[in-house]
Amino acid sequence: MKRILAISLVCLLTLTLLVGCGTGGGNNSTETSGSEQTWELNLGCIANNPTTSTGYNSIGKAILEFTELADEYTEGKVKITPHWSSVLGNNVQLYEQIMMGELDFHIGQPMSSADKRFAAWNVPFVFESLEEVKIGFNSETGVLFKLTSNWMEENGVKLLAVNTSVFRGVISQDPVYVPADMKKMKIRTYEDSLVNKFWGEIGTASIIAGSEIYSALQTKTVDAMEFHATGTMSFKLYEVAKYFTDLNWQWTNGATLTLPIELWESFPEEVQKALQRAADEMVERQYSYEIADQEQVFADLEEEGMTIIKPTDEQRQEWIELSRGMDDWFKDYVGSEAYDEYMAAVAENKAAMK
């Protein structure tokens, strides 16, 4: 009888420990009195804290508000702590942590180093407006969201939301209107093979970390860089460069909300619905913040002494034709099946908007 009692106590203790440990990885799950479960979770991102970096930070503001909405809509059951400015790793590392179940949430850019299909997002001159992106990546009806979600599920990742993020242009020391203007320039790019292929056909592409872009322009290590207008303002790059070309050469999938599928499936249905509601509202807010920023940023850059260049339709067409001439290479890199799926979804989304 004593032996049976001892075994029972060991089993009870083991069960208690398992309940206290939650779902594993970076997840902290606890039981409160009355058997109401709560979660204390971590979110990694490269965005800056909007409480200290207040200007032109639509993604940072949206991330912070997502954590607040998650707390509100789950009635305090889910507490999410955001970790800013890459303190938990860069985008490559953070998404890999999600895939391995070592991190609870990531809001950022899943890179093609994790899954080559993700390079499809980086193909130049695919989208024409943030509204088009917003519709295509709507979590309920978006054809692009559905396709991306399917890809991520194969990585063990749950896609919860895709923010509209930003379009990218060109910062330079000399005026840039057409690709030929950059033929002799050294151009800073971020770490992506497809991106480097595109800019390498235009000038000399050089991968430089985001933390070093100010000094790279200041010391003339590079002559130009592809970047977004709001980032040009928030990083104060107007101090070290003279021109910004409003090219919108690429939409950046830079604020995608993901979590491990195992964690998602551990939540009760009401918690899942509350988190999805918070995520969808975050997307709406980031979109509205970014639109407002876009309406103001060029005036602010000009006030700081930068010249804003807006290419004509004919000049912009030169960039588009250059990009389309690389489509076979892009397709081979992304993978024929994934590339065709993505472009078909883009075409379907455009048709639905007409």
TrEMBL record:
GO biological process, alphabetically ordered: transmembrane transport
Alphabetic keyword roster: Signal
Superkingdom field: Bacteria
One Pfam family here: DctP
Annotated signal peptide: 1-19
The keyword Signal is annotated on this UniProt entry: yes
NCBIfam families: TRAP_S1 (NF037995)
Name listed for the protein in its UniProt record: C4-dicarboxylate ABC transporter substrate-binding protein
Organism: Alkalibaculum sporogenes
